Amino acid sequence: MMLKNKNLLQYSKITTTKLLKQVEVTETPLLVLQAKNLTEKHNKITFDEGSGAIKLYGNPCIKFQEMRAALYHHLGVDLEVEEEYLEWDKKQKKVQWETQIVKPKENKNLLQNPTDFIEKNLEPYPEKCDEKLKLIIDRHNVNVKIQGLLLHSYFENKPLIQNDYCLIFITIVLSIVISFTLILYITSTSQYNGIQINQHEKYGRIEIKRDEQGIPHILGKDKPSAFYGLGYSECQDRLWQMEYKRYVGYGKLSSLFGEKAIPVDIFMKTIGVEKSAIKALEAFKDEDLQILQAYIDGINDCANQLPYLPLEFWILGLKFQNWTLLDSVVTIEYMAISFAYNYQFESINDRLREIFEDEFVIKFCGGTEPYFVFNTTILDDQDLKKVGLFQEYKGDLQKDLKKAKNNIKKVALEEFQSIDKLWEETKDFYPEQIYGKESGFGSNSWAVSGKFTESGKPLLSADPHLLHNIPNFWYQSEIVWGDEKKNDYIIGAHVPGSVDSTDYFEVKLNDDQTKYLHDDKWLPLKIRTEFIQVKGKEENQEVEIKYTHHGPLLNIAINNFAKNPLQNHEKTTALAWSGFQDEHETSFNFYKLSQQKTLKNVQFYLKNLDKFGLSIVFATADNHIGFYSTGRLPIRKNPKQGLFIQDGTNSENNWMGFTKPDELANILDPNKGYIVASNNRISSSNIIYHNQVTHNFNQSRAKRITDIFEQHLKSGKKFNEQIFQSIHSDVIDPVCQDTFLVYVEIVEKYLDKYEWKFKEKEFKYLKKTIQFVKEDENRCFMSKDKFLPTIYVIWQKKLKYLLFDPEFLQKKAKQKNPEQVKNIDFYQKLQHDYIANSGYNVHFHTNLVREWGQNLKNNYEKDYDFCENQYNKNVTGNKCYYDVILALFQTLDYIKINQVQTYGQLHQRTFKHQPFSNVPILNRIFERSIPASGTGDTPNVGPLDDNFKSIYSCNFRAVFNMDEKGKNYWILDTGVSGNPFSPHYADQMNKFAQGEFYEMKFGYKNFLSMKAKYKLVIENKIETQKSEF
User: How far apart, in whole angstroms, are the C-alpha atoms of residue 706 and residue 729?
Assistant: First the structure.
């Protein structure tokens, strides 16, 4: 076909992305938007400005009604749409597509008032699309912006690239960038080889050998020398990561990133990380300081000898300042508060308490028996009796709640602060900027007695879960000194402890905010002044930190599932944490624990890790396995007191004291022969003081791992390293097993009743879908290579969004307390951040679906008011069941629009960089991404965000065999290097994703015999003259 006006459409040729496609036009300009990696038939928009012939092909970011309204508003034309439907091809095992043409009827409301129609009827763009794909329409200028770059511009027939000079300039820039990249790549590992000179004669000769993955194996003449080598190698690989932690810990991010980081700095200064570190450092013994100083000397010598600092230093214009003893302790101390996170749940519970009665809130969050999804505890009651910690809980939930409620006076709230303002201040910063991505999201660890292993010695696995970050928080290395063998007596793995060591207390201040009310007396606040250096500001910002006897005034909690992780709960509160009490020297006890060679000494150091709230599973060479819950725990008058924000004006709510080391949960060699700690409850409430229990954590991972152990023990087979490796990769979802078929049964039974709500083909595919799910017996195997998990996770998410509609929440709040009702935006955020889009409600949702399943069996119908929403107001019958059907319809629509073929296509694991994941173009250099298996309820964990991407997962896996001749294994989810141009930046990523491991070889003999990929020798000046290297 001939082009009558060839110049009407000119565009830049972006050969690497192929995002734009030129099409034949006749009389008027025609624009086609072609999405990346999709067929020509799908996901495009065509429109003719002259004739008004416009077509939308299932674009994931521009919905039909949105596009129709926008086009009419801007161009005065109406829209024709192609709708597509799913077909499953069982032979080819992929999704096929059917297409039909539908011409929509004229919408009078749209034509009369398009702006009002858009505001009232159209949802906003999905967040991912708002950033990645926008179509901006104007009568005179049609622009297509993709990922923030102007790729096409049609204005007065002028192309984007107008002449050869522009092309030459771009070519020169690209050549410089490519050359610079090659230089960085070539030199990224050069520092791993050769001879370096240190200025410290006391450390002598140090050798650092690296294996094929770049993992350092370090040999020194003595312990300080070996730790010098550790500091040196860690600096080579992770200097920026260390620097960033230093800025976070001291509360100095604002000096790098300006005003938006101020709330983060205030948070860190308020909890007093630096202050705590100074106290902790004072308690260090001389021998400990000697080792720590050697490590620091290694860091500084390395940094000052580097040919160039890491790229992040260049981008930010930073110079390296020598590392200090205090810097190291600061990075440890601020990690301790990340393990104390129960106060976050108190803030959430308190918000829900404004809407619902207390018992419903506890039921919703799984706050106590019998509301847990799976009551899988680390210790059973027999274990508690064995160690003398059993104390029968005779309390009554109703009485406890009533007592707690009576103790809570409604104090006058300070003027509400704007949540929107806080969001604007912190939207470019995430929880990892506060906790340096060490935030304790969860972990798995498990051990089995030698009675049940092939070697006759214990096996232990470590499986920590943190946000996806690159470089990884964990650093693989081995240190050896002298000809000493590895310490093969103890191996331990820790997970964040499932204990409540924090409370929020609501405080009433006097008019000038210098005193607080307690037992009808005005007590003086302790006030400390801090200064925050802000980039771009001449003067430092002054911040007053105010303290009550409970702790510092703080009204911010962290919600890692929210768009804005810094959540202001709008009350004046003091944070009480057991870690704020008098300091003990615990920072170095982790190292000391690893060096012990007797069970008695191991137990001593476990008891004295009193600041870190951890669950530690360990195994010893003399055939013991054990568990310790570490940290100092508060004793409360009412064990249910810690579920909500407490009244700080009443001494009845004050903590009564703290548990003694011997009163913390522990077990040595349990009768069942194994231990599973996966952030599940430590025990039942029958433990002394009844408060060593978690209030909110999901138990599903522990349930699945426990089932694996029980099934294997029943088979009579022995455990080995390969079986432990397979547990790390297990993706069977216990919640899915309890809920997926119930969804299907509801659709089967009630779909015909609502046939009139769907078109013929929609109804047909709903029927086919439930049959498809029923036929797959492995429907709850959440593999990235399967398609069916896609239906489950989207269906579950869509259903949660239909429950507890924001308008319903606002109405319930008005019924309970009209004076505290907030605008609809508040309830939209509450529904999005806590109810629909987090693991917070897994207990309630799973139990609700279980109840539905039981009702179906008993042919009994029960509806709930929280199922009502804008879609089912006019529906007769069970609104909850209609929501299940509608959620499935929305699921198929989402799959169709996004053309999802496998779960891994939907569920991506993106490794983010601090802080350049938030910077366009730079994120392309630093980030890595890979398809992921698992859900928030599988041992191979992978909770999903609003766009079904993985939020966090396991970052490091290890299998330890206490048999001297046995093999040990480990692997990181990315790589050992923090240099994005290094071959070891993400070289372990693909193997990790496949569930594979590297054998961990260590010890003095192995060091001497290993064939190193790289070898570095560090000598002082005197020894260099004698070197035979």
Answer: 15
The four Cα atoms 869, 875, 881, 885 give a dihedral, to 10 degrees, of: -90
In whole angstroms, how far apart are CA 749 and each of 767, 779, 792, 879, 882? Answer: 11, 20, 19, 14, 11
Whether residue 48 has pLDDT greater than 50: no
Q: How far apart are CA 13 and CA 18, in angstroms?
A: 8
Please state, for a pLDDT cut of 90, what percent of the chain lies above it: 46
* CA angle (907, 702, 676) in 5-degree steps: 130
Q: Are 48 and 28 in contact (CB under 8 A)?
A: yes
Given 3-state DSSP classes, what are the helix, strand and coil percentages for the chain, each rounded to the nearest 5?
A: 40, 20, 40
- CB-based contact 800:743 (threshold 8 Å): no
Contact 309, 365 (CB under 8 A): no
Q: Which residues contact 870 (CB under 8 A, 6 or more apart)?
A: 805, 807
> How, if at all, do strands 478-481 and 216-220 pair?
parallel
Give the CA distances from residue 867 to residues 606, 744, 800, 807, 877, in Å, rounded to whole numbers and listed in that order. 48, 18, 10, 11, 12
| 988 compared with 375, residue with greater pLDDT | 988
Fold of 344-409+443-499+606-727+955-1009: Glutamine Phosphoribosylpyrophosphate, subunit 1, domain 1 (3.60.20)
3-state secondary structure 384-396: HHHCCCECCCCCC
Report the distance separating Cα 325 and Cα 231, nearest Å. 12
Domain boundaries along the sequence of the chain: 42-102, 135-187, 213-339+503-579, 344-409+443-499+606-727+955-1009, 734-779+787-901
Supply the angle between the helices 325-338 and 262-271 in degrees, to the nearest 10: 90
CA-nearest of 199, 410, 436 to 322 is 199
CATH number of the structural domain 213-339+503-579: 1.10.439.10
pLDDT digits (tens, 9 = 90+) for 783-803: 999 999 999 999 999 999 999
Nearest Cα residue to 473 out of 432, 429, 430, 431: 432
Q: Please, are residues 411 and 506 in contact by the beta-carbon 8 Å criterion? A: yes
* Nearest C-alpha neighbor of 218 from the set 542, 481, 445, 499: 481
Distance CA 286, CA 292 (A): 10
- Model pLDDT for residues 802-817, shown as the tens digit of each residue: 999 999 999 999 999 8
Residue 153's pLDDT is 26
Task: Pinpoint the alpha helices (H) of 911-958.
Answer: 922-926
User: Between these two residues, 971 and 561, which has the higher pLDDT value?
Assistant: 971
1005 Cβ contact partners less than 8 Å away, ≥ 6 residues apart: none
Query: What's the whole-model pTM score?
Result: 0.81
Res. 426 pLDDT band, cuts 50 70 90: very low
Beta strand pairing status for 674-677 and 206-210?
unpaired
User: Scanning the structure block, which residue is given the tokens 């191979």?
Assistant: 940
